[in-house]
Design brief:
The chain contains 6 helices and 6 strands, in the order αβββαβββαααα. It is α/β, with parallel strands linked by helices. The chain has a domain of 119 residues. The longest helix is centred in the last third of the chain and has 60 residues.
Amino acid sequence: MKDPKITAHMISELLKVKHANDIYLPECKTGPSMGSHHFRMDGWSMPKSWSKDAVTAYEIKVSRSDFLQDEKWRSYLIYCNHFYFVTPPGLINPKELPEEAGLYETSKNGTRLFIRKKSVYRTQSIPEEIFRYVLMWRIDKQYTNYWKANAKERLLNWLETQEEDRNFGRALSGKIRKKVEERIWKVAEQNETLEKRIKTYEEIKIFLENLGIDATRPYLSKWEVQKKIDLINELIPQTLIEKFKDTQSNISRVLAMIEDIEKGQREIA
């Protein structure tokens, strides 16, 4: 597959990537566009660091003739500590460059940058006007473009956050619903137990009333109830109690026989 033609725009994009963590401005001017003479560098970068404060300027060349005819690049030197040409591979021989100029070349397919000649560091007091230009005209545009370029990504992040919130809400509501259902079941179980106890207490109350004891009377003692029961047992002969039990048993057998007879009649019918 034939290698693509390396354009100035492709090289500018590679420089943006290289200086993604720095302040980097393509097409950086050295002053106002009107009213005075100014230069325009193809690229200008400054590290976001107090200790590493070297400023770098770039001149992009994609034509050999343009390189040979250009002399204005020397005017850029007062605005940087390092200066580099950036070209497609083989456009410039590093040996033909002066000491103050370095060289970057792209890969054959234009996707990477390689340093071919390192520029010397020049102690240079950067003129104030370049920083004024950066502050007044480019930083605001840079951040505006950043927010525009990342609008889709921010929207996707917002939608993802909304989906996470919905999933969290569904999970939380499910857990709350489960807890509420468990609590309702437990309360129902407790109510059933209380109803059984109340029924038992009612039966005891009726039993005591049949013995002639007022169950609603305060301070009713267990001893008093037991004494009443013992008295009744003394009044009823044991033989009579046994006869009552036998009679009850006989009645139960008769009722069972009647039930079997009725069942047989239903089956015949």
